[in-house]
Amino acid sequence: RLFLLIVIISCCLSVVITFGLLLNTSTRSTINSALYYFQRHYNDIPFIHPPPNIDRGIVEEPKQQMGRKPRPNDQVYNFDLKRYHPKNEDEKKREEEGKRKNGFNAFLSDQIPWDRPVPELRDKSCFTQEYANDLPNTSVVIIFHNEVLSALMRTITTVLLRSPAELLHEIILVDDFSEREDLKGKLEDLIRPLSKVKLLRHASRSGLIRARLTGARAATGEVLIILDSHCECYEGWLEPLLDRIQTDRKVAVTPDITTIDWESLEHTSKPGALSSRGSIDWSFAFKWKKIPGYENERRKTEGDPIRSPTMAGGLFGIDRRYFFELGAYDEDMMIWGAENVEISFRLWMCGGSLEIVPCSKVGHIFRGGGNTIWTFPEGADKTLTKNTMRLIEVWVDDEYKHIYYDKRPWAKGRDYGDISARLELKKKLNCKSFKWYMENVVPELTLPGENVAATGPIRNLGTGNCIDTMGRGEHGEVGMYTCIDHSMNQDISLTDLDELQFDSDYCLDVSDHKSGGKVTLYSCHAMGGNQRWVYEKSTQQLIHSISGNCLESKDKDSLALYPCDSTSLFQQWNFRAYHTP
Ligand code: UD2
Ligand code: MN
């Protein structure tokens, strides 16, 4: 029997050896590459439709053992989105419907691969940085309500694909009570093979604040990273965030949030310098504003973090324990809004800080077309006002509170619930005042009415309508609308630099100096030129200095420059408040 056993073993051995010798080098290297690929990618990239480009893993080189050095993504970026465009009338119809229903091009999102290549947007200086080997690991929390499944899958896939496996502890998905069918069984099928992905579900709609809390409480990684459910992580997005937190556990970080166009789904951001950081407007809502000179002087390279007074809210990282020490979120804020400014104020006032890390890039679909994918069950006004009042009543000093209530007088006396626990937290953490925040974190911010000669709305005596942004942003055309007191879109001032400036920080700008030249919104540059307006009190005309023309509203909707004519009522304007110096 022993003899028989020896014969069998030697037969097996010789088969294995012969087989090994027969393998030529190229087959062997293919097997090695495949093994290598699976070793490097035990993040379990989903090999499900649409198929990810598996070759990427094979060409990748081993990671540095000594210090992590980011390498530029040298793949030529020639991804052709047009291939995925609608091919016939029926598909075009579906595309339009998808945009209407979701606020972004869901049709296209369903067509393009989840792991499509992304352009290299990092500044050169990012590649001179080196990160520690022992970076903390992270739990990524992605919350969603009725998200387009392919957009959610793209977020998950790009986190898995572009995060070093040892730094990605887990991904926690929190479904905030979605109604869409495919977010139920189909989503579960898709994530089943992904060992790092966990799914939690709310039994009722509670809003993004509580959904993130659910995820954060379940997380066990050292760092917590929050993402919206329609993002795309770029190469090297994670390491610079973790590195910054490792250096200072009380700094919260955001990536540079780049724009994925809601209609074309193109990555529209250009490589190079970042120009804005988070601030607030005077309804205490988040606003991007130009990085002030003093902050740019403090930084040595484009890759250096930018201290930011507020965060947009959807994409940020923070030491997980510090997040809870700092009071996590205000759980009585509902659905959406104000939580981003609240956590920003709290970070700065209570001993932490907040930075944008330019070398970390994550794309986000900013919805457009006035469509949202979800609604406010109690109405937008009720929810947003309540959330903002909770922010103001806790974090804004008495001497500044009136700024909000002057703009929103109807909010006075409304119920904002019990804030005693938050006030207690503020005391316990020994937080500084809003005045301190104003003086030290956003010294460039002027109070409303400061440095202004007159405030709007500005009414045309001919039509009786008022100058209105029509809700448009930079480069948008300014229009005319029925006068409404306290409308954000008509909140305009004549500054002591002779600018007509909206609260949004855009100025009335005319670059076409001919008769009929249109008026557009442009970032205020304080240099006069196309933005200098002189209000002639005796004739009530608004004269555009550089062209010598006057602002005129020929009919109730239009606004343009025409040769000055002091007899025309359509060139006469009235400020609600004119402050005589
Ligand atoms: C921005 C933030 C967002 C949040 C919000 C203020 C960015 C890029 N986005 O608006 O994260 O801070 O400002 O509150 O900074 N969601 C739920 N339940 C809800 C409503 C929304 O889970 O009841 C999810 C939604 O699926 C998404 C996330 O919350 O993943 C943020 O919602 P959004 O994308 O509609 O907000 P956004 O980007 O307009
Ligand atoms: Mn979003």
From TrEMBL:
Membrane topology: Single-pass type II membrane protein
Pfam families attached to this UniProt entry: Glycos_transf_2, Ricin_B_lectin
Cofactor(s) essential for the protein: Mn(2+)
Gene Ontology MF terms: carbohydrate binding; polypeptide N-acetylgalactosaminyltransferase activity
Main location group: Golgi
Pathway stated in the Swiss-Prot or TrEMBL entry: Protein modification; protein glycosylation
UniProt keyword annotation of Transferase present: yes
UniProt keyword annotations, A-Z: Disulfide bond, Glycoprotein, Glycosyltransferase, Golgi apparatus, Lectin, Manganese, Membrane, Signal-anchor, Transferase, Transmembrane, Transmembrane helix
Superkingdom to which the source organism belongs: Eukaryota
Enzyme class: transferase
Keyword Iron listed: no
A Gene Ontology cellular-component term: Golgi membrane
Enzyme Commission number, as recorded: 2.4.1.-
GO annotation (BP), single: protein O-linked glycosylation
InterPro entries recorded: GalNAc-T (IPR045885), Glyco_trans_2-like (IPR001173), Nucleotide-diphossugar_trans (IPR029044), Ricin_B-like_lectins (IPR035992), Ricin_B_lectin (IPR000772)
Subcellular localization, as worded in the UniProt entry: Golgi apparatus membrane
SUPFAM superfamilies according to UniProt: Nucleotide-diphospho-sugar transferases (SSF53448), Ricin B-like lectins (SSF50370)
Transmembrane segments: 1-23
Residues covered by the Ricin B lectin domain: 455-576
Family affiliation: Belongs to the glycosyltransferase 2 family. GalNAc-T subfamily.
Name this protein carries in UniProt: Polypeptide N-acetylgalactosaminyltransferase
Organism per entry: Oopsacas minuta
